[in-house]
Write a structure and sequence with these properties.
By secondary structure, this protein is an alpha+beta fold. It has one domain. It is built from five helices and eleven strands, in the order ββαβββααββαββββα. The strands form three sheets. Strands 1, 3, 4, 9, 10 and 11 form a six-stranded mixed sheet that branches. A three-stranded antiparallel sheet has the order 2-8-5. A two-stranded antiparallel ribbon has the order 6-7. The longest helix is centred in the last third of the chain and has 15 residues. The two termini are about 30 Å apart.
Length: about 210
């Protein structure tokens, strides 16, 4: 088991997606997803350039790992396919990739596509390079109500590139400290909506 921690630069509720009672990470953080295993913890921390510096945005423990096609076809996750004339929660659906009859990976009109619904190949290649969709039924999503990390857990905010891992065989005591701390909060619910909801729906070009 390991704890992977990273900086949430843009909190849209898209990656991870905490809606409908289950938290999923299907896009972005491709290297993290590719190396994840069941039982791992994934923790998102606010950016140093935002109001959420040193605060926790989200945390999830991985219960299940699916391929993109398994995720696409699973009845449990049909509501996570984006509905572009729906609510913000629907528009930011992360179930956006599937393989067509010719074996080509397709991308739905979504937060990661272009304005006209055309696939954004930069986002597509990066997202699907992660190979895995992470599923969690044990998660905490603080969003705009992000909580400041206690001093003994502040190292989680020390991430410069992509993400960092803390392995159980290297520092189990620290992981245990984090788990004990996070469990004081109610899980499996939106403690706060995504910070970016206040701006309405936005597309991400994959560059900035």
């Amino acid at each position: 088991m390991k704890l992977s921690h990273y900086i949430v630069k843009r909190d849209y509720g898209f990656a991870p997606n905490p809606f409908y009672g289950v938290c999923t990470l299907a896009t972005c953080k491709s290297k993290l997803r590719k190396r994840a295993e069941v039982g791992d913890w994934v923790v998102g921390i606010g950016s140093a350039s935002s109001l959420y510096k040193g605060k926790i945005i989200c945390a999830m423990q991985v219960d299940e790992i699916l391929t993109f096609d398994q995720y696409w076809n699973d009845d449990r996750f049909q509501m996570k396919k984006p509905v572009m004339n729906g609510s913000l929660q629907q528009k930011y659906g992360d179930n956006i990739y599937y393989t067509d009859e010719d074996g080509k990976i397709e991308q739905l009109d979504s937060h990661h596509s272009y304005v006209n619904g055309e696939p954004n190949m930069h986002n597509l290649n990066r997202d699907t390079g992660g190979e895995k969709v992470l599923i969690s039924n044990k998660f905490w999503y603080f969003g705009k109500n992000a909580v400041k990390l206690p001093s003994n857990l502040e190292r989680l905010a020390n991430v410069r590139m992509n993400y960092k891992n803390i392995n159980e065989n290297e520092d189990k005591a620290f992981i245990d400290e984090f788990v004990n701390w996070i469990q004081q909060f109610d899980n499996n619910q939106l403690i706060g909506y995504p910070e970016k909801f206040i701006s309405g729906f936005e597309r991400y070009d994959g560059i900035s």
